[in-house]
Amino acid sequence: FAGSSKNPMEQDVESPAIIRQPKLPKQAREDLPKQLAEMDRTKKIQRYVQKDGKCNVHHGNVRETYRYLTDIFTTLVDLKWRFNLFIFVLVYTVTWLFFGFMWWLIAYLRGDLDHIADNQWTPCVNNLNGFVSAFLFSIETETTIGYGYRVITDKCPEGIVLLLVQSVLGSIVNAFMVGCMFVKISQPKKRAETLVFSTNAVISMRDGRLCLMFRVGDLRNSHIVEASIRAKLIKSKQTKEGEFIPLNQTDINVGYNTGDDRLFLVSPLIICHEINQNSPFWEISQAHLAKEELEIVVILEGMVEATGMTCQARSSYVSSEIKWGYRFTPVLTLEDGFYEVDYNSFHDIYETNTPACSAKELADMTNRTRLPLTWSLASKLSQQGLPESEQEGQETKTTPDNQEKSQQTERNGDIANIESESKV
């Protein structure tokens, strides 16, 4: 019995340790799934437009592919550079090989290849003795090099016709391919690389109103002519009839009515959208914004001053990139005889006092603070009263304007009475 017994210390060491999870409070247990779901939702936010302006949309199951061939020029321009260069080389090589084969075929059918050493024989093309020399003659003809060693003779009408056909088709191929390369090189897409947008958008008070703001700038000294800015809200919605509209686009007014959307983009500008009754953010508060799945797409358009071609730069802001209660740090300073822009502070923001409620709630609170003042004046006048003789005199002197003012006072008193009754 003594040999079979174990030391209590050894028994404690050998037994596996059981760690019990602490029991969370009920409120914490209920909030945990919501927090996990919120984290998953934040991770799964899918952009419609990337920060660099690329549209995150892929076209699938396009059956009518022939439509791409009907606009072959645009199709070639839209291809990537490696495919564009490959097609460029391929088209010229195939053209030279095809007409080289035609020159060799004419020489073969006429028997020029059988009379290479015969000085009395007049070939279609002098010094054409095989396919390689025919290929070289095709290159010389289409590129108009003309070394002078291989020359077409006047005793070959079919060769003259082929020379005309190759000259015309060669000019068409040159115009098409060189034009395609020129448009590809001169595309203003790279000009958009020097048009920058702020990393975040902000919401704060400006002139007593809630405003959504973001900043744009141009890094080049050559300016964008006729620059204009637009903004779209991308958010799925469901109609009253139950129809679900994915990625519905809603216009965001950034100064279309006042002309503020047309920019003189010499220095960085802060684009402002006033959140009013016509704004899609009218009923969105700070807490509501954090839960919203939305995206703001901003589009800057204008003509490149150097080339005159239209340029477009795009960016977007998801709900997590819209900072509530912040403003942009100023970047423009006055130096000795000029203004200097500090682009190191272009994306910087600082916190400011901003109400966390929505613009609608802010307007309602502002209106409620005005009503008691009007009602108090009307109530004091009614409580003081006037003598009967003065009242009769006032009635005889009453004008239509005074009647309207008294009616307005009565309405304000009625509104205040309703509010007091509802509080009771």
Automatic annotation (TrEMBL):
Q: Which residues form the Potassium channel inwardly rectifying transmembrane domain?
A: 49-188
A molecular function annotated in GO for this UniProt entry is: G-protein activated inward rectifier potassium channel activity
Provide the membrane topology annotation. Answer: Multi-pass membrane protein
Q: Which GO terms describe its cellular component?
A: monoatomic ion channel complex; plasma membrane
Keywords recorded for this protein, A-Z:
Ion channel, Ion transport, Membrane, Phosphoprotein, Potassium, Potassium transport, Transmembrane, Transmembrane helix, Transport, Voltage-gated channel
Q: Which InterPro entries match?
A: Ig_E-set (IPR014756), IRK_C (IPR041647), K_chnl_inward-rec_Kir (IPR016449), K_chnl_inward-rec_Kir3.2 (IPR003275), K_chnl_inward-rec_Kir_cyto (IPR013518), Kir_TM (IPR040445)
Q: Which GO terms describe its biological process?
A: nervous system development; potassium ion import across plasma membrane; regulation of monoatomic ion transmembrane transport
User: Could you tell me what reaction this enzyme catalyses?
Assistant: K(+)(in) = K(+)(out)
Instruction: Name the residues annotated as site: Role in the control of polyamine-mediated channel gating and in the blocking by intracellular magnesium.
Output: N174
The UniProt regions of compositional bias labelled Basic and acidic residues, in chain numbering, are: 402-413
For the region Disordered, give the residue spans. 381-424
Per UniProt, residues of the Inward rectifier potassium channel C-terminal domain are: 195-365
**UniProt keyword annotation of Protein transport present:** no
Q: What is this protein called?
A: G protein-activated inward rectifier potassium channel 2
Native source species: Seriola lalandi dorsalis
